[in-house]
UniProtKB/TrEMBL annotation, chain A:
Protein species of origin: Laodelphax striatellus (Small brown planthopper)
Keyword presence, rRNA processing: yes
Similarity comment: Belongs to the RRP4 family.
Primary localization: nucleus
Descriptive protein name: S1 motif domain-containing protein
One annotated Gene Ontology cellular component of this protein: cytoplasmic exosome (RNase complex)
SUPFAM superfamilies associated with the record: Eukaryotic type KH-domain (KH-domain type I), Nucleic acid-binding proteins, Ribosomal L27 protein-like
One Gene Ontology molecular-function label: RNA binding
Key words of the record: Exosome, Nucleus, RNA-binding, rRNA processing
Keyword check for rRNA processing: yes
Localization in the cell: Nucleus
Automatic annotation (TrEMBL), chain B:
Primary location class: cytoplasm
Record GO terms (molecular function): RNA binding
Entry superkingdom: Eukaryota
Organism, as annotated: Laodelphax striatellus (Small brown planthopper)
Annotated GO CC locations: cytoplasmic exosome (RNase complex); nuclear exosome (RNase complex); nucleolus
Name assigned to this protein: Exoribonuclease phosphorolytic domain-containing protein
PANTHER family with a match to the protein in the record: EXOSOME COMPLEX COMPONENT, EXOSOME COMPLEX COMPONENT MTR3
Keywords noted in UniProt: Cytoplasm, Exosome, Nucleus, RNA-binding, rRNA processing
UniProtKB/TrEMBL annotation, chain C:
Subcellular location as annotated: Cytoplasm; Nucleus, Nucleolus
Protein name as catalogued: Ribosomal RNA-processing protein 42
PANTHER family: EXOSOME COMPLEX COMPONENT RRP42, EXOSOME COMPLEX EXONUCLEASE RIBOSOMAL RNA PROCESSING PROTEIN
InterPro entries documented for this protein: ExoRNase_PH_dom1 (IPR001247), ExoRNase_PH_dom2 (IPR015847), ExoRNase_PH_dom2_sf (IPR036345), Exosome_comp_Rrp42_subfam (IPR050590), PNPase/RNase_PH_dom_sf (IPR027408), Ribosomal_Su5_D2-typ_SF (IPR020568)
Family of this protein: Belongs to the RNase PH family.
Keyword NAD: no
BP terms from Gene Ontology: exonucleolytic trimming to generate mature 3'-end of 5.8S rRNA from tricistronic rRNA transcript (SSU-rRNA, 5.8S rRNA, LSU-rRNA); nuclear mRNA surveillance; nuclear polyadenylation-dependent rRNA catabolic process; rRNA catabolic process; TRAMP-dependent tRNA surveillance pathway; U1 snRNA 3'-end processing; U4 snRNA 3'-end processing; U5 snRNA 3'-end processing
The keyword Cytoplasm is assigned to this record: yes
GO molecular function annotations of the record: mRNA 3'-UTR AU-rich region binding
Domain of life: Eukaryota
């Protein structure tokens, strides 16, 4: 074993605790706490705010940052579950199989719903849903399975309706799921990322990140309900996947935005460590700082 | 301590008069001598690696779906298993059936009177019993249901848990609960260089003390084994010993368990033989009745 | 935990990862996740410790009280373990939900601590002794509870200070206890024979040390081995609904012994290091 003696230590003292927070040179924005008066006049009430009894003063109802769109005032909570928007890419886990629909956990307040009618069934797109299909539902997707999907619409109670009517969506096969705060995932043009070192990511908007090996068959593989369980991931691929996982967790621990280049930089910086060393808080902080430096240098240029 | 108000309570601090009986050997070597005779035989005449005589019987209780009774020397345990029933207060669907086990010492089963309310030891042994039986039961055949198994130790003269495991597995088989295999269990008591297979309570007591010599190994090992599956379903060890010794001991215990396994099988088969004999007799009886009937109609 | 579910693909990856000796977080089969330990975090307890192992968070407080020894063992003190699965960890522990788990852990600790020398807790033979109450609070659980709890308990015991008491038997058989005037006149406990529990989770054909919650989902049976400083085993048992092959048991005991011994050693070193920080060290507690 070629480990540094420090990484061999598994028990540490609280006095050696590492603060994973980064200082970002930005000035902290204005925070509001529940009940605090928002000193603005003649505005419209948005999410995270309420009018008090005599409807004169606007108050915040969540702790967060004030945002203003023209006359609309809203307070965005610092930490929240996923608030879905139509068109978002999400990764979710099937929690329950019901009549003609699946309940999916997507880290939002309510379980999302995937209708049997909004999935592509094997054997062509234009096919009527038969009673047979209803019986086979558990065969396609059963409790515990992971899927990638797109938000189709939002019900009045706030729960999401998903669809997988595209070849890129469907059941996920072998890979690792990492859960991070949804706010940390940067909105990008595409949330399906193929990283240069043989690993692919679904950086879903709901904060569930799926890491899986890049394979030539990826395009055809997606969208179906087939899982390739026989294929064994090579040790080299596994090393890359686990390293990516630990890098993402390191960035998330320091509250860094997650997008393709931040992950790639973090991965490159992490090469000086063994994969398991990335579990140590010192290494996690080091990578986060280095990545932040590179990113800020880029924006300066 | 929790108290059951429905029962008559003795004075709060009573203790056994055995404490005043001055039979306790003074020195350690005297104690060992008392348990192990100089000719290498134990106080009941067994050799160190002999097990006591086992008596097994199934269907001893009429109310339970299946039941079994076991006598290992003076240790007597009675077990009953009940039909699968819906898991009470459970609203979640569970794919595998549950096994609910309760292990109880009768109040008079030991020298010291046991309390009526289940104490921590009994709860621990209940969990052990459950873990020992679970792997042998085809739990997927009764999803969302639970099977209750109750083991009551009538008399404890050592190895009560092992006897209860063997007995409970027979009771389950007798209740026609689908099982992969029968589980049998044995106890090994360790005290220094001496290894007592299937120890009595006196030997168990000795094994819980640290020997003064070089070899500090002491303690008890209970191993439950499913012979056909070749799987250890439970291993419970208390007392300080080397891991190498423990490995070796568990190996020898599993081979001994295979021998008692045959006994369990025999016991179950005998019931069938007996009932077929009985059935034959009844059939013959029926035949004669029929003949009589026919005869009477003719008249 | 019931709330955790895994798909077939994830399970397969974990299984193959264990076979390749490269787990999902990059660890080998025999490696622990980093832990963080702090002792004396609770001021009202005689000794306490808090351990964080990834998501698992354990707080142990030791209280000492005076009791009468059992008539069978007049010269021994008593130790008792209480585990409380706080509903803070998961809503499933609410009410009586965590009771079964709590009982299993406290019983396994009671079994494992049979090696602990209780004669150091004797005050006057047959009359008075110390009773240690080890109250274990599970604040968060992210897998591998047995190991985490046992490390926290041992650390808390090592920090425990028992007040010096002189007991004299008076004429009528009553005992007169005299507590030292100096509140700092305490004695530390000897924890050299306090065991650590090592869980060996069987995944595929291999035994894995320090399983994460996800890995625990992939396994049906594990061996828990309690190991002393010198490598001897003070108790062991199987937990989980599955069964093990004799060879697996053998391997588990072997790995458990080695891992447990080195863990014991490491704990001793780190406790010494903390002690060397002096009595005026800064307490970190729950603030990050």
């Amino acid at each position: 074993m070629d480990e540094t003696p420090d990484s061999n230590k598994t028990i540490r003292l609280a006095s050696q605790r590492v603060n994973l927070c980064l200082n970002s040179g930005n000035n902290p924005p204005n925070f509001f706490t529940p009940g605090q008066i928002i000193p603005l006049e003649g505005c419209m009430r948005g999410h995270g705010t309420y009018f008090d009894k005599n409807a004169t003063t606007l108050k915040a109802s969540v702790s967060g940052v004030l945002e203003r769109v023209n006359q609309l005032i809203l307070v965005k909570p610092l930490k929240s579950r996923y608030n879905g928007e139509v068109g978002d890419v999400v990764v979710g886990r099937i929690m329950e199989v019901q009549k003609k629909r699946w309940k999916v956990d997507t880290n939002s307040r309510l379980d999302a719903i995937l209708q049997l009618s909004s999935v592509n069934l094997p054997g062509g797109e234009l096919r009527l849903r038969s009673v047979e299909d209803e019986r086979m539902m558990r065969k396609y997707l059963s409790e515990g399975d992971l899927i990638s999907a797109e938000v189709q619409s939002i019900f009045s109670d706030g729960s999401l309706a998903l669809h997988t009517r595209s070849l890129k969506y469907g059941k996920l096969s072998q890979g690792i799921l990492v859960k991070v705060c949804p706010a940390l995932v940067k909105r990008c043009k595409t949330h399906f990322q193929k990283l240069p070192f043989g690993v692919s990511l679904i950086l879903s908007n709901n904060g569930y990140i799926w890491i899986y090996p890049t394979s030539d068959l990826n395009e055809e593989e997606g969208g179906g309900f087939l899982q390739n369980l026989d294929k064994r991931i090579t040790t080299a691929d596994r090393g890359v996947i686990t390293r990516t996982r630990n890098c993402i967790l390191a960035l998330a621990a320091s509250k860094m935005l997650l997008f393709d280049s931040s992950i790639i930089y973090a991965y490159e910086q992490s090469m000086k460590y063994e994969v398991h060393e990335l579990l140590l808080p010192e290494a996690m902080l080091d990578i986060a700082i280095l990545t932040q430096e590179i990113l800020s240098r880029q924006t300066d240029d | 301590m929790p108290v059951d108000s429905r029962r008559l309570q003795g004075p709060e601090t009573t203790f056994s008069y055995h404490l005043y009986v001055n039979k306790q050997p003074q020195t350690h070597s005297q104690w060992v001598k008392q348990v192990l005779k100089s000719n290498g035989k134990r106080s009941d005449g067994r050799k160190l690696d002999d097990i006591r005589k086992i008596f097994l019987k199934t269907s001893v209780m009429s109310q339970a779906k299946g039941s079994a009774y076991i006598e290992v020397g003076n240790t007597k345990v009675i077990c009953s298993a009940f039909d699968p029933r819906e898991i009470p207060n459970n609203n979640k669907f569970s794919l595998n059936g549950e096994l609910f086990c309760e292990f109880k010492f009768a109040n008079f089963s030991q020298k010291k009177r046991r309390g009526f309310i289940r104490d921590a030891e009994e709860k621990d042994l209940s969990v052990c019993l459950k873990r020992a039986l679970e792997p042998a039961v085809c739990r997927h055949e009764f999803p969302n249901f639970q099977v209750d198994v109750y083991a009551l130790v009538l008399e404890d003269d050592g190895s009560a848990l092992a006897a209860a495991i063997t007995c409970a597995s027979l009771a389950l088989a007798d209740a026609s609960i689908p099982m992969y295999d029968l589980v049998t269990a044995l106890t090994l008591g360790v005290h220094g260089d001496h290894k007592f297979l299937d120890p009595t309570s006196e030997e168990e007591r000795l094994c819980c003390h640290e020997p003064p010599g070089q070899n500090k190994n002491h303690g008890l090992i209970v191993l439950a084994y499913a012979t056909e599956l070749q799987q250890v379903t439970q291993l419970k060890q208390i007392g300080v010993m080397d891991s190498e010794f423990l490995i070796e001991a568990s190996n020898s215990l599993s081979s001994h368990c295979s021998q008692t396994h045959k006994l369990s099988q025999q016991c179950l088969a005998q019931v069938v033989l007996k009932t077929t004999k009985e059935k034959k007799r009844l059939l013959e009886l029926g035949e004669t009745f029929k003949k009589m009937d026919v005869g009477s109609q003719k008249d | 935990m019931a709330s955790l579910m895994l798909g077939e693909g994830e399970k397969m990856l974990i299984l193959h990862g264990v076979e390749d000796d490269m787990r999902n977080d990059g660890r080998t089969r025999r490696k622990y996740r980093p832990m963080e330990l702090e002792t004396n975090v609770v001021s009202h307890a005689n000794g306490s410790a808090r351990l964080r192992l990834a998501n698992t968070d354990i707080l142990v407080g030791i209280k000492t009280e005076i009791d009468c020894p059992f008539p069978e063992t007049p010269n021994l003190g008593k130790i008792e373990f209480f585990v409380d699965c706080s509903a803070n960890a998961t809503p499933a522990f609410e009410g009586r939900g965590g009771e079964d788990l709590a009982m299993e852990i406290s019983n396994s600790l009671a079994c494992a601590y049979n090696s602990f020398p209780l004669d150091q807790l004797c005050i006057t033979k047959g009359e008075q002794c110390w009773k240690l109450y080890a109250d274990i609070l599970i604040l968060e659980c992210g897998g591998n509870l047995y190991d985490a709890v046992s490390i926290a308990v041992k650390a808390a015991l090592s920090s425990t200070e028992v007040p010096k008491v002189v007991g004299t038997v008076l004429d009528g058989g009553t005992v007169d206890l005299v507590l030292s005037d100096d509140p700092f006149d305490c004695q530390k406990l000897d924890v050299r024979r306090a065991p650590l529990l090592v869980t060996l989770c069987k995944i595929g054909d291999f035994c894995v040390v320090d399983p994460t919650a996800e890995e625990e989902m992939c396994s049906v049976a594990s061996m828990v081995v309690s190991v002393l400083e010198n490598g001897t085993v003070s108790s062991s048992f199987k937990c989980g609904a599955g069964s093990l092959h004799s060879e697996t048991v053998k391997e588990a005991l072997k790995i458990g012994k080695e891992v447990g011994q080195s863990l014991n050693q490491e704990l001793e070193e780190i406790l010494l290091e903390e002690q060397n920080l002096g009595p005026k060290r800064e307490l970190f507690g729950f603030l990050k």
